[in-house]
């Protein structure tokens, strides 16, 4: 059986990333002649050249491209292994990093965290932010789980998702708009609204609802942050369409009143994870079992 020298592979991988032996030698803090020798030994062991030189820069051959692709996987898995061991050996707790879009109701994030604790001895970190950034971090294994109000695009092929909640959407407002309960939803004609941003599926569904029902409303603000949307609603800036579970707490606190439900409009929440060679057991369990439907 032919054995692969891990150090030789690392040297090759760094040369390919840097584009030259000189830059790779500086990054690895070893001499250029030593690095050239190590590369030659790897090429001899594989029986084919991995680079061709062009205009003072090294370019991967076809064999080199294949080797680089596998080397990339080897080092990714190696990083995964170290991360997994560190997470699971520290206080015997598994670290679970959960990303959540600003637009996901805090009630649902809380439910995921509680379910994670039920699934095993773990420590949870929660990061909130924009969808594309969190999806990239999920793909790069910097985040273990992601809560979103839309499914991942085909650009993220290593990400898999499941729909975990489908929540009724209601229109809420400050006390001064309570008269609009009468003759809802026709009463919404011409009223000011604070909407989710246009990129969200919920916004498109809301626009479709008003279009189908022939209701014209006045968009005075839009935001992807539900907390900011709620604040603007309580200040009377405009009416806000939000998930029913969020509205219940605000009504209980007497910050808003519910004017009515948008029939057929739902806030759908997705739970996502990325394919990994070494699975986080808490993540695997949540992806299999968690649902609020």
Give the C-alpha Rg. 26 Å
- Mean pLDDT across residues: 88
Q: Please name the fourth-level CATH homologous superfamily of the largest domain.
A: Periplasmic binding protein-like II
- Roughly what fraction of the amino acids lie in strands? 25-35%
Determine the N-to-C terminus distance.
53 Å
Total number of beta strands: 10
* Strand order in space, largest sheet: 4-3-5-10-6-9
CATH names the topology of the largest domain as D-Maltodextrin-Binding Protein, domain 2
Multimeric state: single chain
- SSE sequence, one letter per element: HHHEEHEHEHEEEHEHEHEH
- Our count of domains comes out at 3
Query: What's the story with the biggest beta sheet?
Result: 6 strands, mixed
CATH architecture of the largest domain: 3-Layer(aba) Sandwich
Shape: elongated
The CATH top-level class label of the largest domain:
Alpha Beta
| Low-pLDDT stretches | none
What does this structure look like?
Keywords: Activator, DNA-binding, Transcription, Transcription regulation. Residues 4-61 form the HTH lysR-type domain. This is LysR family transcriptional regulator. It holds the Pfam family HTH_1. The chain has 293 residues and is an alpha/beta fold. 43% of the residues lie in helices and 25% in strands. The protein has helices at residues 6-18, 21-28, 32-46, 62-89, 106-119, 131-139, 201-212, 226-234, 244-252, 281-289; strands at 51-54, 57-60, 94-101, 122-129, 145-148, 159-173, 192-195, 218-222, 240-243, 257-274. A 6-stranded mixed beta sheet has the order 4-3-5-10-6-9, sandwiched between helices. It has a two-stranded antiparallel sheet with strand order 1-2. The protein starts with 5 loop residues before the first helix and ends with a helix. The mean pLDDT is 88.
């Amino acid at each position: 059986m032919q054995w692969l020298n891990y150090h030789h592979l690392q040297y090759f991988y760094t040369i390919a990333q840097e584009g030259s032996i000189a830059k790779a030698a500086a990054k690895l803090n070893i001499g250029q002649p030593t690095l050239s020798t190590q590369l030659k030994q790897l090429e001899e062991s594989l029986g084919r050249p991995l680079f061709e030189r062009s205009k003072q820069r090294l370019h991967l051959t076809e064999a080199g491209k294949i080797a680089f692709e596998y080397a990339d996987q080897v080092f990714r898995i190696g990083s995964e292994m170290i991360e997994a061991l560190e997470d699971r050996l520290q206080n015997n707790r598994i670290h679970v990093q959960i990303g959540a879009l600003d637009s996901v109701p805090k009630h649902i994030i809380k439910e995921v965290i509680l379910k994670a604790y039920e699934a095993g001895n773990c420590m949870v970190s929660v990061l909130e932010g924009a969808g594309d950034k969190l999806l990239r971090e999920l793909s790069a294994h910097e985040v273990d789980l992601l809560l979103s109000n839309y499914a991942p695009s085909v650009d993220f092929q290593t990400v898999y998702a499941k729909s975990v909640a489908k929540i009724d959407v209601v229109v809420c407002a400050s006390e001064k708009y309570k008269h609009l309960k009468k003759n809802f939803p026709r009463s919404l004609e011409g009223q000011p609204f604070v909407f989710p941003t246009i990129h969200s599926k919920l916004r498109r569904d809301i626009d479709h609802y008003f279009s189908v029902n022939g209701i014209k409303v006045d968009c005075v603000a839009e935001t992807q942050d539900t907390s900011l949307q709620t604040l603007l609603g309580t200040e009377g800036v405009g009416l806000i369409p939000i998930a029913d579970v969020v509205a219940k707490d605000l009504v209980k606190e007497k910050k808003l009143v519910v004017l009515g439900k948008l029939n057929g409009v739902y806030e759908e929440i997705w739970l996502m994870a990325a394919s990994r060679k070494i699975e986080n057991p808490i993540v695997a369990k949540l992806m299999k079992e968690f649902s609020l439907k």
